[in-house]
Design goal:
By secondary structure, the protein is α+β, with helices and mostly antiparallel strands. It has helices at residues 69-96, 127-137, 148-155, 166-169, 179-184, 191-194, 209-218, 295-322, 387-390, and strands at residues 2-8, 16-19, 30-35, 38-51, 61-66, 101-107, 113-119, 140-145, 225-228, 231-239, 244-249, 257-260, 265-268.
């Protein structure tokens, strides 16, 4: 067993193993490690643990120490030096007229080496540029030409899926991707839809390629001659994800039907002639989907039941209030139940069978005499709220 710690450098998703040499390091701490290009400032992502000897490549690089505040200030000064080196190098490129695009500048921890990454369509003679940069910074200068995929990995960004680039997030190495993968997955061959920001085919095409290849082996090919529960026909389209095929039947070619793969008896796989093919008398059985509810459907059913129960409760409460539902008894004696007709039997306009109690006649108050209108005055109309006009009532009379 070998004790190791996992280290990740700036701008890279790959994890490297180092020998802690008895120093305990927690994940998230910054450390100083020894590399092929000198000392480097990096972050620990995996603490001390033991692994099999076959999982590591000997000899392991050593951990020097846990980073201190002085190491952190040195790292920040190197970042400022990288920005200055980027501006100076861009000016020198314009002065020399070189066809190259500067992508990024890295300065090692001790400041003895500066690395410039650039992209170009062809070879570039940058010997004069290296001499000028060495005289400017008094350090070892190294220029590295990278591809467009490496450029996207160094710069980072957001893909069309809305997530950070896979190459800048977790991919250690670039996966070879071909246009054959897009054809196998029945994707559109439009370059703008299957290409990433770097201009190359998207790395995620490789993720599901094995599943699609397995589905292709199990599904019949297009234009195959098959026997279905409804008769013979040719396959016009294959849905690999649903494992279904669209068949144009010989008896009804104008109305293609969709069948599950288990409903098809392949008589000829792919294009070809029907001569010599023996059609079986027994047709395949129809596919019946399982009736088991998925957790999502069960959750929807539970929510719909709760909504129906709430609606029933609200309707009950509304009818009771509108029709005078009995309230909880607070008095010691309960009221006797009514012996009227059942609810809903009496309609609006019907008279009740109960006799009305006789009320004593109240004496009517004498009406006050209205002053007579003088000659020349206009007759004053009484306001009856509009009811008289709507029901055709006569206007009040006035005495001359």
């Amino acid at each position: 067993m070998t004790e190791i710690i996992g280290i990740r450098f700036r701008g890279g998703p790959k994890e490297y193993y180092f020998d802690p040499r008895g120093i305990t390091v927690e994940p998230g701490q910054y450390v100083i490690v020894e590399t092929a290009s000198g000392q480097e400032y990096a972050r620990c992502v995996t603490g001390n643990r033991e692994v099999e000897d076959s999982e590591v490549v000997q000899p392991l690089r050593a951990l020097l120490r846990v980073a201190t505040e002085n190491d952190k200030r040195t790292w920040e000064l190197n970042r400022e030096r990288e920005k200055d080196a980027m501006r100076v190098c861009q000016k020198k490129i314009l002065q020399h007229g070189l066809d190259m695009k500067l992508v990024r500048v890295d300065c090692n921890f001790d400041g003895s080496k500066i690395i410039f990454y650039f992209t170009s369509e062809g070879r570039v003679d940058f010997r004069a540029l290296v001499r000028d940069l060495a005289a400017e910074f008094r350090a070892r200068i190294e220029l590295r030409q990278i591809g467009v995929r490496d450029e996207a990995k160094l710069l980072g960004g957001i893909g069309i899926c809305g997530r950070p680039f896979c190459c800048a997030e977790f991919l250690d190495d670039f996966i070879p991707v071909s246009i054959k993968m897009a054809k196998t997955q029945n994707l559109s061959l439009n370059p703008t839809k299957i290409s990433g920001t770097c201009g190359r085919l998207m790395c995620c095409l490789k993720y599901e390629q094995d599943a699609y290849e397995d589905a292709v082996r199990r599904c019949p090919k297009q234009d195959s001659f098959v026997l279905t529960p409804d008769g013979t026909g040719n396959i016009t389209n294959v849905d690999l994800l649903r494992e279904q095929s669209v068949v144009r039947l010989d008896d009804a070619p104008e109305a293609p039907k969709r069948y599950h793969n288990c409903e098809l008896n392949v008589l000829r796989n792919g294009k070809g002639s029907r001569e010599g093919i023996v059609i079986p008398r027994e047709r395949p059985e129809r596919y019946r989907a399982p009736e088991e509810d998925t957790p999502f459907e069960e959750a929807l059913a539970f929510l719909s039941d709760e909504d129906d129960e709430d609606k029933r409760r609200s309707r009950r409460g509304g009818r009771g209030r509108r029709r005078g539902a009995e309230k909880p008894d607070t008095a010691p004696e309960k009221a006797a139940p009514k012996a009227d007709k059942p609810r809903g039997e009496r309609r609006r306009g019907e008279k009740s069978d109960k006799p009305k109690a006789d009320k004593p006649d109240k004496p009517k108050a004498p009406k006050a005499e209205q002053p007579k209108a003088e000659e020349g005055d206009k007759p004053r109309r009484r306001h009856r709220g509009g009811r008289g006009h709507r029901r055709g009532g006569d206007a009040p009379k006035t005495e001359a």
